[in-house]
């Protein structure tokens, strides 16, 4: 299993830095985010150092997303949030701060709970034809 000696999440996996571990198996680890944006804010990471979604191995992603619903339901059962955001930032422009893939589970407790996540509606800028062109351009890379 490869690790980056300067990566804080790799140090957590190697138990060089303490963490409040919620779940762990051979492939992934989940722990309480130190920032606790909202109560129950949890991170799910691969144990192997994989920088971002672009580098995430398919088998790792498959395992990680098998665990994700279990973790989400544990948060739901324990804290009864109004909702839950799953957030993954990739690259500096997308606000990735730790360059080790991680998925945030952010429980939501109403609109004024301290977490803001907005999407601008640009639908008037794209016709059905323009959306199909986008889809066709992406399809050729799959």
Summarize the helices and strands and which ones pair or pack.
Blueprint: H1 8-13, E1 21-24, E2 28-32, E3 42-46, H2 58-79, E4 83-87, E5 103-108, H3 128-139
Antiparallel strand pairs: 1-2, 2-3, 3-5, 4-5
Motif (Histidine triad motif): 100-104
Active site: 102
Domain HIT: 8-115
Summarize the structure.
One of its GO terms (molecular function) is catalytic activity. The protein is of the alpha+beta class. It has helices at 8-13, 58-79, 128-139; strands at 21-24, 28-32, 42-46, 83-87, 103-108.
Instruction: Give the structural class.
Output: alpha+beta
Side by side, the strands of the main sheet go 1-2-3-5-4
Work out the radius of gyration: 17 Å
CATH topology: HIT family, subunit A
Q: How many DSSP E strands?
A: 5
- How far the N terminus sits from the C terminus, by CA atoms, comes to 28 Å
CATH superfamily: HIT-like
In CATH, the architecture is 2-Layer Sandwich
Average pLDDT metric:
95
Q: What is the percent of helical residues?
A: 25-40%
What is the number of domains?
1
CATH class: Alpha Beta
Shape: globular
Low-confidence stretches: none
Strand content: 15-25%
Major pleated sheet: 5 strands, antiparallel
SS field, number of helical segments: 3
**Order of SSEs, N→C?**
HEEEHEEH
InterPro entries: HINT (IPR039384), Histidine_triad_CS (IPR019808), Histidine_triad_HIT (IPR001310), HIT-like (IPR011146), HIT-like_sf (IPR036265)
Active site: 102
Pfam families: HIT
GO molecular function, one term: catalytic activity
């Amino acid at each position: 299993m490869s690790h980056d000696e300067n990566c804080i999440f790799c140090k957590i996996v190697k138990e060089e830095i303490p963490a409040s571990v919620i779940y762990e198996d051979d492939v992934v680890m989940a722990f309480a985010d130190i920032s606790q944006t909202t109560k129950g804010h949890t991170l799910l990471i691969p144990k192997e150092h994989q920088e971002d979604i672009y580098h995430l191995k398919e088998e790792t992603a498959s395992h990680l997303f098998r665990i994700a619903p279990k973790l989400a339901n544990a948060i739901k059962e324990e804290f009864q949030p109004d909702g839950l955001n799953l957030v993954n930032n990739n690259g500096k422009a997308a606000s990735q701060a730790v360059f080790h893939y991680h998925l945030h589970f952010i429980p939501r407790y109403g609109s004024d709970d301290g977490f803001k996540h907005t999407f601008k509606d640009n639908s008037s800028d794209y016709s059905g034809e323009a959306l199909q062109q986008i889809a066709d351009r992406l399809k050729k890379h799959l």
